[in-house]
Specification:
The complex is a heterodimer of chains A (277) and B (408). Chain A has 277 residues and is of the alpha+beta class. Chain A is built from 11 helices and 8 strands. In chain A, β1 and β2 form a beta hairpin. Chain B is 38% helix and 13% strand. In chain B, β3, α4 and β4 form a beta-alpha-beta unit. Classes of the chains: A alpha+beta (277), B alpha/beta (408). Chain B: It comes from Desulfurivibrio alkaliphilus (strain DSM 19089 / UNIQEM U267 / AHT2).
Chain lengths: 277, 408
């Protein structure tokens, strides 16, 4: 069973603004029966140009219904310019969070809003203009690229959680990797860029050894212990403990809470430290 | 805190309540009777004798001999042991025949084997028809000289549909192929007699028949080639290393004895309750579709799709009323696609996402069934009122509202 927040449950059990607006100014429709969730959003503008009313119809799970309900509450009283700034993260946050596998429900809410605004303005749905990358769920590269940027996605699995792309037959996984690489490389130029995630084994070993020499070994030596890098296989770092660390009862804790943490912070966030047997 | 509604448990294909008599049989072995059944002293020997009784109880339920029963940790271990043992018995053969609707215990193992051996193992997954039935001619055609093992479930966990495994085993035998059946859903619900069967290997899971979770058994026909999955001590005559999960095995034995005594009730009272539930829902709720063959299935299972609504939403509403059920919808599985079983049967997306499995046990009552029949129509109506597809389905424009993918 999914761990839903009380707010998700509340919106799901008592959804606000269910229905249609017959003379809506904008209608946004996203998703499909095949995809397993779909949202039809209606917006009506007041004389002041602000969203006076919003209603929805949703086919989907608790997250999809709750996201739709929360969205309609959030956009009432906003101008279209203000409304289009609402992100999927805002919707998820409004609900007190969603399970990571269900983030695509908040994305669906955001896309329905964009589609409704585009419908009102008489322009094509922006995200639908891109190249369809995931045939199973009809997700375009534009949607994927935006999700990677906005939600700082780091893996194909995360892309799937947020956009559903890659969640079907899996044939687009290579393309998703490619897009991920392209977008992550771009973001390297940004000031807050994280270290590159594609490292060769030699690069990893070099960085690990440097960190060992610079920080970890001096710290362990203070307590009469020491550590050596034994092997590296993908993300698995095998180390051998030396000196006092060998007999220390807390050595496992040291490896996980200190050594692995340091390696993840300074080398690669997916590294796993294991002790040589 | 608001009063919690009483639990109406209709998810017995997922797991079952431990029968109070089973629990009672187990309790002394958590306490004073803690000896190791392999020990030479009489304190352990006493436990060993009870273990032997449990083995006989399991064997009796399926018409086997005690020597043919190997205790395992679960149905999945039994499945893995059976298939891997068969492959070891015929190392020169690389072909496995199974179906598209197997439980992940078999499905994922076969896929894993295929990848692990660099696609040297070929896996044929037999298709099923709209009722979830297999075509025996297709099955026969799939067998060849390279086939090492056939692994076909006896009863499908989602739809309850029964496969003709007895007949399939005979065909396999005539071709010199080992036959395994994952019978975790069938054991205790339908009569099984291994003495008159050609099945070589059969998997049992304790928690599907009112024993605890974490215990299972594998039937290994006398003389069938076998290799252990877990290698260690001499337990289970060297067929499964590791000290036995004594208390749970004693529970499994007791549960099997109870199941044998309740087979008639399962096939009469439980079946009637299931039929009443099914008819009540199908007659009161429009666009409700039965998934699976109406006759050729377990007496306790019904799988119904409610078009244009999504399964997880139905389950959560049912949960509010204390009703426990399952769904083959994508949202309940963590995947993004609905049940592989329903998809293999060609159930359209309009229905596959809104499937609900209701599985009964001997503990269910008619009042509970009446309650579910009373609550379900309102739940479906509420969700359909919210669904963008429900109204349009009556206007002939179902599916694909602004959709870029195909809605079958």
């Amino acid at each position: 069973m999914w761990e839903y927040t009380d707010k998700v449950r509340e919106h799901f059990m008592n959804p606000r603004n269910v229905g249609e607006i017959p003379d809506a100014d904008g209608i946004g429709e996203v998703g499909s029966l095949a995809c397993g969730d779909a949202l039809k959003l209606f917006i009506k503008l007041g004389p002041d140009g602000k969203i006076a009313d919003a209603k929805f119809k949703t086919f989907g799970c608790a997250s999809a219904i709750a996201s739709s309900s929360a969205l309609t509450e959030m956009i009432k009283g906003l101008t279209l310019d203000q409304a289009e700034k609402i992100s999927n993260e805002d919707i998820a946050q409004e609900l007190g969070g969603l399970p990571k596998e269900k983030m695509h429900c908040s994305v669906m809410g955001r896309e329905a809003l964009e589609a409704a605004i585009a419908n009102y303005r008489g322009i094509p749905i922006p995200m639908a203009q891109g190249e369809v990358v995931c045939e199973c769920f009809g997700v375009t590269d534009l949607e994927i690229r935006r999700a990677i940027h906005e939600s700082k996605l780091k893996s194909v699995e995360e892309i799937t959680n947020f956009t559903k792309a890659g969640g079907g037959c899996g044939r687009c996984h290579e393309r998703l990797e490619e897009i991920l690489r392209e977008e992550r490389q771009e973001s390297k130029a940004e000031p807050a860029a994280e270290p590159a995630k594609k490292l060769t084994n030699i690069q990893k070993i070099k960085m690990i050894e440097e960190l060992f020499e610079r920080e970890i070994r001096p710290a362990l030596r203070k307590d009469g212990g020491d550590i050596e890098l034994v092997d590296l296989d993908g993300d698995f770092v095998t180390v051998a403990l030396r000196g006092a660390c060998v007999t220390c009862k807390k050595s496992k804790l040291t490896l996980k809470e200190y050594v692995e943490k340091k390696l993840r912070e300074q080398v690669l966030d997916s590294l796993i430290v294991e002790e040589a047997r | 805190m608001a009063d919690q509604p009483p639990v109406i448990y209709l998810d017995n294909n997922a797991t079952t309540k431990v029968d109070p008599a089973v629990l009672e049989a187990m309790l002394p072995y958590f306490g004073e009777l803690y000896g190791n059944p392999s020990s030479m002293h009489s304190f352990g020997g006493q436990v060993g004798r009870t273990l032997a009784t449990a083995r006989q109880q399991v064997a009796s339920l399926i018409g086997a001999t005690a020597e043919e029963i190997v205790f395992t940790s679960c149905g999945t271990e039994s499945d893995s042991t059976a298939i891997l043992a068969a492959l070891q018995a015929f190392p020169e053969k690389r072909h496995i025949v199974t179906t598209r609707v197997e439980h992940p215990a078999v499905k994922h193992l076969c896929e894993h084997l295929d990848r692990l051996t660099g696609h040297k193992h070929r896996v044929t997954k037999l298709p099923v028809d709209r009722d979830g039935l297999l075509d025996l001619e297709q099955y026969e055609a799939a067998l060849n000289d390279d086939t090492a093992v056939v692994s076909v479930m006896w009863a499908n966990n989602e739809t309850g549909v029964l496969f003709p495994v007895e007949e399939m085993a005979k065909i396999a035998k005539s071709r010199g192929v080992l036959f395994h059946t994952d019978a975790v859903q069938a054991v205790g619900k339908i009569p099984i007699n291994m003495a008159e069967s050609a099945i070589d290997l059969l998997s049992i899971s304790g928690h599907k028949l009112h024993a605890p979770k974490g215990v299972g058994a594998l039937y290994v026909r006398k003389g069938a080639p076998f290799a252990p999955l877990i290698i260690g001590g001499h337990q289970e005559k060297g067929r499964r290393g590791g000290t036995e999960n004594v208390t749970s095995i004693i529970g499994l034995g007791q549960a099997c004895e109870l199941a044998a005594a309740r087979l008639e009730e399962e096939n009469s009272r439980v079946r009637q309750l299931r039929d009443k539930l099914e008819e009540g829902l199908l007659s009161q709720i429009p666009n409700a579709i039965l998934n699976g063959h109406k006759e050729q299935r377990l007496p306790n299972t019904t799988n119904i799709s409610f078009e244009y609504v999504e399964g997880e939403s139905i389950l959560l509403h049912l949960d509010q009323y204390g009703i426990c059920a399952s769904s083959g919808s994508a949202c309940t599985s963590g995947s993004l696609e609905p049940s592989h079983v329903l998809r293999a049967m060609g159930v359209p997306f309009t229905a596959a996402h809104g499937s609900v499995r209701l599985s009964l046990s001997v503990f269910n009552t008619e009042e509970e069934i009446d309650y579910v029949i009373a609550k379900m129509p309102g739940i479906i109506a509420k969700l359909r009122e919210m669904s963008p597809f429900w109204q349009s389905s009556h206007q002939g424009s179902v599916g694909g509202t602004g959709c870029r993918c195909e809605c079958s």
